[in-house]
Protein 1
Amino acid sequence: MFNFTKYSKIYFSIALILALASIFSLIFFGLNLGMDFKGGTSVKVEYEKKAPKIEDVKKNLNIESYEIQSFGDKGIILKIKNKNIQADEYNKILKELEVSDNKIADSELQTISPVVGSELKNKTIIVAIVALIAMLLYIAFAFKQVSGPISSFQYGLVSTLMLFNDILIPLGVLAFLGKYYGVEFTIPIVTAILAVIGYSINNNIVIFDRIRENLRLNAKLSYTEVVNKSLNQVVVRCVNTSLTTLFVLISLYYFFMGEGGIEYFALTASIGIIIGTFSSVFLSSPILAKWAEKKE
């Protein structure tokens, strides 16, 4: 049986380094907010034939601060940040979007004002905070009858701290990628982060539930011994579940590489699931074990 808590200082050190690096990245680089949050213009076109490759379309474009992605077999969406397009500019862009003899059959123009983008940004922050608080209350309620030296509130608190960590590190990576590779923070990325919150809390619940069961069945064992036993019983399940999800996300990333939204959704979710699995197995329960040791 592997002794998870024996090496807890190493896990905590790794987590601290990653968290500090992410905070540094967010403070000094900041998130490269996309059109969804800053406002701008979206141009959706449908071609007569199959849509050209994104790389070929980019060669024709003479605009700055844009994001382009395909939809369906014949469509492309072009998002231009911080700019409202006039009629003459719109017609020019449509000509630039035509590749070789592949003409545009239909087009649609949509504008997002900076005010709407700002409201969306505020709502995103509120949703993330509400989700974290809801998870804390849910865990505290679900484990209110657990026996042992750890209270239900502590289960909820450590879960919330780990969820915050699971969000912080992907955001730090995105800030770095935004600074050096122009990756934009968009709605699909927000969706990925919220999905990571739900995924990570599921792993925590599985582990905590096994700890609760083992506390009842093994009253003579110390809390740290119960934690180690529980982790050994569920670690394979947690890792296998994460791997199966990662396989899907890696496939999404590979097949939609260069197409913006889905590509970075898959990347963000992948980072979050890896960090979330690490947090659930190597951080959450060992932290509880340390708190229990101080009480004893």
Note: Residues 65 and 81 are 6 Å apart (CA to CA).
Protein 2
Amino acid sequence: MPPRSTPSDPSDPSNPSPAPTRKDGRDARAPGDGNRLYLGDNLDVMRSLPCESIDLIYADPPFFSGRSYGLNPSSEGSQPHFRDQWPQGLEGYLAWLVERLREMRRLLRPSGSLFLHLDWHAVHYAKVEMDRIFGYDHLQNEIVWSYHSGGGSRRRYGRKHDTLLWYTASREGYQFNTDEVRVPYDAAIASSRRRLFHRDGKVDGSVWEIPRPPNHSKEWTGYPTQKPEVLLERIIRAHSLPGQVVGDFFCGSGTTLVVSHRLGRQWVACDCSPIAVEVASARLRQSGEATAQGGLPATQFIVDEGPFPEDRLPVRPPD
């Protein structure tokens, strides 16, 4: 799949498209050549990928929460498999995050979108950095994901929402499939006026009421930061087309990957945690068996552990 910036017609055999290149000009394997799950530092992984090769990126990084996370509450704090703790404080966290957001911007196609998923801890600081990377006028929406579980307090209002910042690579011409996010109108429409309204409803607003997956649901894996499939399904349907490439470089339990396959998208993903890659791989295999029974091709993917470029940076701060 050649980058869209290639001037030649890829369908014309007399004008073959050049091989995709990495940021440093060397040949690179383009996303879309096969679903690939990387175990390692996402900065190294992204640097190995060609420019303008991904249509949609969903980024769910650490939130600057100051917590440690395990696969269940009893393991939290004792044997965590990742820590969202930053010895250099907010300044160190933002420096770590910005370096990765810049790479994501480079990877997006001109029609591509990036969804950055954070919460109250640091989203306002991250927005300022995203404005610098993408441009202030490339922010399309600040989306509130509202849920009812967790976050209760007697000292303040319950913290029951996350924030998703939707930025686009271009100010115009970005992918937005409005018919995928239509909801019923708030009030009944008189028959004499129905011709003035869309028959499938209005485009939904920027507050999304979507419950977290309960721990007794079929999709629940026990992964502490797992996001609901319904949330990712909405993003992927609205901002990509079948056959296009979705990227998730903090893939955790693999929700983005499972939903992308089910919707006919290709994907490239990464996590630095061996436990996350193990959980995501098992979930993909299980999901692949289910989709195969439903008539879709079984999930085909490769787990890649490198090698990556040697100038590695730690994907999370030292303990």
Note: Residues 274-293 form the longest helix (20 residues).
Protein 3
Amino acid sequence: MLSVFIGLTFNPYLGNKKLLKLNMRTSLIILMLLMQMLSTNELIAQEKHKIVTAQNGDGIISLQTRHGLSPKTYQAEFIGLNKQKLGKNNALFIGVKYKLPISKTSDNKAKSLVLPIFGKKYQNVKIEDDQLKGAIFYLVAGHGGPDPGAVGNYGNRKLCEDEYAYDVTLRLARNLMQHGATVHMITKDQNDGIRDASYLPADKDERCHPNKRIPINQLKRLKQRTKAVNDLYRKNRNAKYQRVLIIHLDSRSKRENIDVFFYHDKRSKSGKLFSQNLLNTFNAKYRKFQPGRGYQGTISTRELYVLANTYPTATFIELGNINNQRDLLRFIKSDNRQALANWLFEGILHDFKTNKL
């Protein structure tokens, strides 16, 4: 706010009434000009607030993160700007428009990376903060190369597990990098990138880190990606927080609707806690965004090669049943794939801050 004080000096002994009238008139003109300038500045300030629409699965953190703002810095301001449009516990409503805080000058100079693996639309990755500084992640999207994984049907299209698991994995990788994490994509496709289409065409050109052809033989494939993780782990053995996330879609009866669930190695206490933190996040999100629906996700042990033989703490994630039409909505809508990545990110962030095993 600009405070203006206009003083008039008048000597009654001079008796100059014309001068007084002139001074008053001039002062009124100046005051009106200043008021107009203030009004204009307020309008300009209002225009600087970007208006965005909340998507399925969005919370304040994910919405601000997607639009290049650090939730840690701007959460209180966001709530102040939008308090009339927020639900219980500051929940967002799908389809409602919200004002974003104006990014400060220092934020505009934040470090950015250009990573073509995310595709042209998403290749510019702005580092928002360092909440995950020191954390290292090995992301393994299931199947790939000559193996499409499970195949589902949607209308007259065939949907391949490896394409949808890979898209969610890429989205998760980008979220993690935005907050200072080091991320290694173990399975990668240099020309797919993050895709917003409902139908993701299948291909067979995925590679295994660093740039190896994926073999046809299943056991050789599993050994290849396990070795890739362990070789990287040896180079980073001094890092305190390292995690492996293996992301798949399940294949079951068409009638079986399932929620996201998790496996961990039976010997790993930290893996069990990691999986529990992820599951707790999903449970909280469903209570917030779909109260009354319930969430039936589970955690259990299973003897899976990569899960059992990689050195870092690991979790194996099944995102849903590719043969169930209701579950398919979780995959074919890009907003839902982003929501899956956002929720996984939030669970990981919680695990990073609390899991000391």
Note: DSSP finds ten helices and 15 strands in the chain.
Protein 4
Amino acid sequence: MSTKHTPRTSTTDPAATRKLEALGLLTPQETAPIPAPDATKEIIYLDPKNLSVHRSLDKLPALASDSPEFIAIVTSVQEIGIQEPLKIVLNSESEDTGIIIDGRHRWRAAKRLGLTAVPCIVIQYQDSKQVALASLTCRRHYTKAQLTYVCIDLMEDAFVEASERMFSGTGNPANSVRRVEKGLEMWADELGVSRRYLEQVRELRKLFEDKTKRDLRSDKDDESEVDTTFREFWEPRILRSENPLGIGGVLTAIKQVLSIEKKADAGIEHTGGAPQEHEAQLDLFTRSWEAVGKKFRYWSDWDPITRLTAIRQMTPVVAEMPDDLLEATAAEIKAEMKRRAAELK
């Protein structure tokens, strides 16, 4: 049986509202579905045993039960209780059961401690992915790159939801697809990560769907594990707080493993090579491009002379490019110019 606490006032988080509006997930006329940190919306209390985690969060990394971060959450809940209510969607068949949208680690801590009731705020099901996304983007312990990795699947789902509502009845699904892609690009710009990085994260997420157990090694860490999946091995190293691995380097390592397996299946012997050196070099190369991409935000503030000076700095760099890299770069630039021209029509 749930219990309720009904305060006199409620409000919404203006920062969350602005972020969702900027990303196209809300129109200015809509109300953000995110409770403000100091707001007191209606709170109900449910037994943790009657709660489950929303399926959209399945792909998001979870803290290990023995990790210092999770132990700290358990200790906090034990000493001062759950200060921020869980955000849930009520089960349509019973008001005593719900699906967790935000707060799964607090929920796990409550279960470990044997609590019989946890505070919850009820949200609408159609806003669930947007709420989960906004909650994640407020996390301070992730870098921008890590946040992109964590949120990419949820971001795509949230834009699909918003687009389907906006274009419902138009009979033109292409509008939804274009809006999703444009929204993702806006979000990448908002976080200060390149669109290329966004593509790499999508590619890595796809590779992480492979459930094959392998013996894997990270040359950069000089660590190895047996009978593990790509995701189980690499994800903790991408998301760790100290010296996280770059997406580019992890992609390279996985592709090397797949290439070796493919050659083995074809009866071609692996001759070695220098995977550690290549992994480090590609990671550095990727980071350099990302650093350049982040500087483009200054361009609109520069006067013509400053812009011309910056353009001239590119000349010696372009002159040193290998032929195939130069051709690929030119093709990317041409494709981007064509895409932008199409948007203006």
Note: The longest strand covers residues 94-102.
